[in-house]
Amino acid sequence: MEKYVYLFNEGNSDMRNILGGKGANLAEMTNIGLPVPFGFTISTQACNDYYKAGKKISDTVEQQILVALEQLEEKTGKKLGDVTNPLLVSVRSGSVFSMPGMMDTVLNLGMNDETVKAVARLTNNERFAYDSYRRFIQMFSNVVLGIDLFYFEQFLEETREKKGYKVDPELTAEDWQEVIAGYKAIVKRQKKIEFPQNPQEQLFLAIRAVFDSWNNQRAIVYRRIHKIPDSLGTAVNVQSMVFGNMGNDSGTGVAFTRNPSTGEHQLYGEYLMNAQGEDVVAGIRTPEAIHVLEKEMPDVYKKLLATCQLLEKHYQDMQDIEFTIERGELFILQTRNGKRTAQAAVQIGVDMVREGIIDKETAILRVDPEQLNQLLHRRIDQTAKRVPLTKGLPASPGAATGAVVFDADEAEQLGKEGKKVILVRPETTPDDIHGIVAAEAVVTSRGGMTSHAAVVARGMGKACICGCESLKIDLKNKLFTVGDTVVKYGDIITIDGSTGEIMLGGVAMIEPQLSEEFKLLLSWADQVREIGVRANADNPVDARKAFEFGAGGIGLCRTEHMFMDPKRIPIVQSMILAENYEDRTVFLDQLLIMQQGDFEGIFEAMEGHPVTIRLLDPPMHEFLPDKEELLVEVTKLQLTAPDSPELAEKERLLKKVNQLSEFNPMLGHRGCRLGIIYPEIYEMQVRAIINAAVKVTEKGIPVKPEIMIPLVGHVNELKRMRQLVEETAEQVMSATGVYFDYLVGTMIEVPRAALTADRIAEQADFFSFGTNDLTQTTFGFSRDDAEGKFLQTYIEQKVLPENPFAILDREGVGKLIEMGVTLGRKTKSNLKTGICGEHGGEKSSIEFCYLAGLDYVSCSPYRVPLARLAAAQATIQHRGSIVEAVR
Ligand code: PEP
Ligand code: MG
User: Could you tell me which residues come within 8 angstroms of residue 216 by beta carbon, excluding any fewer than 6 positions away?
Assistant: First the structure.
């Protein structure tokens, strides 16, 4: 019979898939002898079977739960529902990947009208017993019975007011009994049932509710963002309760073995005395910093510190630990690898290598390449005048400026419209997740650094400030006040997530400096990786940035971007409007000088590394004014100034625009098709490149130009363009007497090029896969507007697993790339291959490129560090399996 239920001493940390992360860790901790309250885990398979059976717990699973319960009862000497020594348990979710706060939990299960009396007797604390019971009713009613918490909160508030109390600790045992009666009445009113008194019934209802919470809205959204498969299911952990709310010698908290924000090697965390588990993470009361515990309970602190060190050594990673102190005794409830900012991930990885805990490759694998973005983000210029309006807890670093909004839906709406917003909330709850995704940053007036949404924001690399208590939020009137200052919906503020400061208006920002550890980690990545990283850059400034970020060359210089400069566009237009070759060359000569200057700057910035320059690619109409607008102007002039020279000029322009307009511009007269019809344009560009290379060579700086022809589909196109390049280059070189090597290659961005790559390689020294166009031409999806029109729905409805313009479609586009590489190398074994579409900066696509045997990836300068790390990770994970792995 399949095993579905495991006692904590029957599992270990390798059983994550079966027991979920939390269950596997509880088992592991039990086995290494830590003080973990005993319990059992119901497997993820049981959850999946539950869904398969139409939300039914099978008899087998039920039976195994009952057996495990008996064993738990034996071990603890307590019994569920017993009126002398009752067992109380927590029922918690725990999936394979941690999803903080996304699923449900029930605490204090086993309480009823009778057991509460036993708890009061045993603890000699009536007040505690009734408070625990009312907490249970509240939580169970919300999570299991689906009653809004609002009813309970409102009732509690009314009771407090009626009795003239300000805070909960003022309520006596009798008061809590009154509250319990009120709560039961709410259940009866809302659900037409009595609150369940049978603890076994409570247990099975709670288990079902946790299974159900796998598919609640926020869990689904979280899984989508973090790419966690829906098919994994959640495990359920049933664990005997310990109480942090038994008085002032009890408490509960969260500790990180290192600072999850900065990576600093020092115990970090928060706790609350006389409180229960969820009070800390829910972010409702603002907790104490962990070092205060050292003064308050020195022995417990010492033990906690030792346990943290033991756990970190055992797991060889920074741990995020939940603990409870019950009457001076420490219990560990949970440990997991701690979520951390990019800065902390890098710092901890490098420190742990230095401390001999892990090796360099492990450190490389530990940092998520996407997370590096955080380090490359801007922060507030230190020299700028900053006048903080107020200050909260620095929950996630980075700085942001945006308009204040008070609601997650609003943040999402405005975010969609491209507006930069800062989400300001009294407290952050997991339900706000879509707003956090859309906002630039998040600010809360309550809650600690480990509140759920703060953790989520940190994981996403969003700046976040928590617990800013001086901020008085008025949700109804959409404003907040700090003292006398009123900040309204839509007002601009700036926040610094690294210091917790909030400022009015915008503040000057600067680009980030990379830490020594960051550079060190990337230098380790460079030693490991077996695939090059270049950058896409079109001007000397970007080229320098790319070089600084560690690019080993330029993989794509889009020369049309040089044409787009506002000062140059009139010359480009005149060149296009020229009626004949002679007229055109006048303007081409002017452009030549401008382009040459840019090329010189780029060659110099790259200090002898290869620079791939692509000749003009986009259809010509892109450089001319918009047809509709022009039509309006011409019509107006025809009415107001029919004989003006201005009208004649505009009419000429309109005629040309009409001539050049295309039904399907992306399939139109662009790429090498331009070079074939207007060879003088390509010739000018080649002349500019070679002239620049001559100039730079003369300065003593080596150059490696690689001239790239776009949109080739037939070998003859490349043959002609290659001839043009070679003849032009030869002219310049023989005229100047300066000779150097250069390459001529092509982009592979239409399927025919990949299919006939053996023929095309006859004329090419290198291939660069332009996967933006190759995705467009392979799918037949427009790269300009498919996303807005239907692609989003395709992805939501899972017609496609991902957006193929963001993550390379290995099955289709990938097959063409493999074919292109294989066929090309058959003709020319030393053919250089690379990728320069957007995919070159995306980690899964980089992994594919490594597996397909490409020589390099090329991406935007800011993604270069990410690509270096992702390239190293792909190498470590797949070394030795290239080619076989693709087949
Ligand atoms: C491509 O098509 O992938 C490419 C890099 O060229 P562009 O995006 O300029 O068309
Ligand atoms: Mg292209």
Answer: 102, 103, 104
Quickly state the pLDDT bin for 875 (edges 50, 70, 90).
very high
Under CATH, what is the fold of the domain 49-240?
Answer: Dna Ligase; domain 1 (3.30.1490)
15: helix, strand or coil: helix
Structure tokens belonging to residue 525:
């990545």
Q: Is 836 a catalytic residue?
A: yes
Cα 370 to averaged position of ligand 1 atoms, centre (Å) = 22
Q: Which of 571, 536, 542, 559 is nearest to 685 (CA)?
A: 559
Its CATH architecture, for the domain 378-510, is 3-Layer(bba) Sandwich (3.50)
Six token digits for residue 787: 């996303």
* Predicted pLDDT of residue 887: 30
Q: Which residue in 452, 609, 621, 839 is the catalytic one?
A: 452
CATH number of 529-619+662-878: 3.20.20.60
The first and second tokens of residue 165, run together, are 């109390």
User: Pocket of ligand 1, candidates 538, 772, 774: which has the most ligand atoms within 8 Å of its Cβ, to mutate?
Assistant: 772
pLDDT of 113 over the 60 cut: yes
Model pLDDT, residue 97: 87
pLDDT in tens, 445-498: 876 655 555 666 765 668 889 888 899 999 889 999 999 999 999 999 999 988
Q: What are phi and psi of 503, to 5 degrees?
A: -125, 150
Give 140: exposed, middle or buried? Use CB within 10 Å, 0-12, 13-18, 19+: buried
Answer whether 851's CB lies under 8 Å from 878's CB.
Answer: yes
Q: How far apart are alpha carbons 522 and 673 in whole angstroms?
A: 41
For residue 773, how far is its CA from the centre of ligand 1 (angstroms)?
A: 6
Instruction: Give the separation between CA 586 and CA 591, rounded to whole angstroms.
Output: 9
Q: Is 500 in the pocket of ligand 1 (CB under 6 A)?
A: no
CATH architecture entry for 251-337: 2-Layer Sandwich (3.30)
According to DSSP, residue 500 is labeled: T
Render pLDDT for 707-736 as a digit per residue (tens, 0 to 9). Answer: 999 999 999 999 999 999 999 999 999 999
- How far apart CA 674 and CA 680 sit, in angstroms, is 10
Is the predicted pLDDT of residue 236 greater than 50, yes or no?
Answer: yes
pTM across the whole model: 0.75
Q: Which residues pair with 256 in a beta bridge?
A: 268, 320
| Domain residue extents for the chain | 49-240, 251-337, 378-510, 529-619+662-878, 628-661
Sorting pLDDT into bands at 50, 70 and 90, what band is 218?
A: confident
Half-sphere CA count of 49, side-chain side, radius 13 A: 16
CB atoms within 10 A of CB 85: 15
How is residue 86 annotated by DSSP?
A: E
